[in-house]
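Team,

Forwarding the record for the chain on the shared tracking sheet. I've put the sequence and predicted structure together so nobody has to dig through attachments.
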Amino acid sequence: MVMCARDVMRVDPMVARPGTTLPDLEQLLLSRRIGGLPVVDDGKLVGVVSRSDIVRKLGVEQVIAEQVAEFHRELAGYDDSQVPDAGAAQQVSARLEGVKVRDIMVEAAVTVTPDQPLREVAATLCERKVHRVPVVEHGRLVGIITTLDLVNLIAGGTFAEK
């Protein structure tokens, strides 16, 4: 018997909403000790979001802050020792408070169907270099499979969180 996605997927997975703020998302990910979530709006999967998306956004914001600080240093004729950088850091922090999941999520989520053979699911995870795939049926999220789920299966564990 060929195992399919439905045989190992976690049903009723935790999700993020598009309007969730980055600080709230990070708190949720840290408290649940997970790396990412499917994003659902009005019952439909609209994307996925992960810690790497947050890190990518923080990296962009850091570069912007450094460029703004450099511009002001050059404009005012200051050297690095004369310009405090705390203001730039506070501005970055304030901007990030307003960033929402919809601003950083990956909309073109890699998905699988419930009847997809597990071998194909594993190949998808490897080929697309993702750690989780939402399981979707008729546009609706019905489950999720993570790399940890597959490792647990191989190790002979149980799916207590199912």
